[in-house]
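new request in #modeling-help
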Amino acid sequence: MAQPPYLHPGTELLHGGVERTPYGETSEAIFPTSGFVYDSAAQAEATFVGTEDHYQYTRFGNPTVTALERRLARIEGAEACRATATGMAAVHASMLCHLRAGDHVVASRALFGSCHWIVSTLLPRLGISHEFVDAGDQAGWQRALSRPTRVVLLETPSNPMLEIVDLGLVSALAHQAGAIVIVDNVFATPLLQRPLELGADVVVYSATKHMDGQGRVLGGAVLGERTWVEEELQPYLRNTGPTLSPFNAWVLLKGLETMGVRVEAACRRAAEIADFLAAHPAVARVWYPSRSDHPQHALAMRQMSAGGTLVTFELWGGKAASFRFLDALRLIVISNNLGDARSMVTHPATTTHMRIGAGERARLGIGDGVVRLSVGLEDMRDLTADLGRALEAAAEPKQAAE
Ligand SMILES: *Cc1c(COP(=O)(O)O)cnc(C)c1O
């Protein structure tokens, strides 16, 4: 089927993948059905043989999920996409469909907790070895990728320290080592960073984050070349079953319609907030990719068109000051989620990165005073007032309960 040429991502967010029913609905239809019926035994046979294109069963495919997959492929500029029930299903399937016992994986050290668990705990059980590399350690990537490797998994910017991996360099090294490069592009979104254009082979998303962006559903997606998606990924997904529900696919289609304006507005606020925090005496340090004091600022700005929706900063006074800060916020909510329309704050050392232990946290630079802020869409005046009040509380512990 001939597809019209891809339009700009901002347009594909709204129009990509639409296939209207004969009723001519404006908003995409939902098909909440587990299965599909055939006109005849011959049609059922032809469908199973593959000579006729007909939906069979929602674990294999569903029109609402297909609409989402087509839209995501067009936004990313990828040949093909498969949607999954969660971001972790996307990460897990993209790796496991490609790996065999005896293979070797190289991954960035700063990975989302469950991604780290898959590499460090699950893969060894399956006879797959691994090595972690610090995001910005170019010699480390070179050394690790001097041996045959099947998969490179990385996240950039990383959670929560917003470290940047050089996608072009690592992709070139990975390809020499025989590996495919899987990029978890959750923090940047397809609007700020285009890993496939920089040399990566596969992009994975937690659609739970900016794509829904309104705290409603879980979802995930894997994007890459058509042959890889159809021949390696598709059989794995069909037979293991991490299927996205049609309802959740529909919610995500609605989320994508506004993702462009949401991400743009949140990035604008995040950049202003990063500067506001950096100027405050209670703040020891700010990490934000588009600020010139980010350790990899030049690389970040080569790869990303804006700094993103997350700001990480360190308060003087460690855990006690951080807890005073979080507890003094009245508008910004405490949540380990991110990419939401509501601003959210988390203390990584005691939540998302508690389990990795103090040694690994120190190695990643996640101090007890580090706070991660996911910037939402509230009025800037209210956000800075809330942050300002909480920073005062962080700096000056109350002596007595009031
Ligand atoms: C949230 C997240 C995931 C996992 O996605 P779920 O939808 O929660 O399964 C993976 N990677 C990153 C970077 C994330 O932020």
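bot summary: The chain has two domains: 9-255, 260-394.
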